[in-house]
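Support reply, case 0932

Customer input (verbatim):
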Amino acid sequence: MGKTVILRCSLCGKESKVEWGREFYVDSLGREHYYNEFGNISEEAKNRGISGFWVDKVCKNCGEVIRESRYLEDITDEHEVAWMNFPRVDIVEKCTKCGSRDILTLYEIIIGEDKKVPCNSCRDGKMKVESIYE
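Our regenerated output:
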């Protein structure tokens, strides 16, 4: 159900991955990991369950990709249950790198706002949508 967009700089070719709605689990040390990576669910992920979803945003000012971790109230191993309880409240309201409040969602990037995002590597190029997949 999640989406991934690959952005590529028009000048230097650097790629950035922006994800929305990707499930994660939390390991015994409190670190977040993909719950379902490349169609594979590890034994640890199965045992721990889905803890939440990642929602990436992009700063329109500096091009930084900012990841929000939206935690579920109750951990589950059922994708449908987790998805129905997807936390819809935005957490990140400003860029963690430059402090700008001009943050783009994945939807805004897909509808064409990507042309206004500078490359966070070379700063001279603009990020363009290279591909979109689920």
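We compared this against your earlier run and they match. Two observations from our side: Residues 3-133 form one domain. The chain has three helices and seven strands. Please reopen the case if you see a mismatch on your end.
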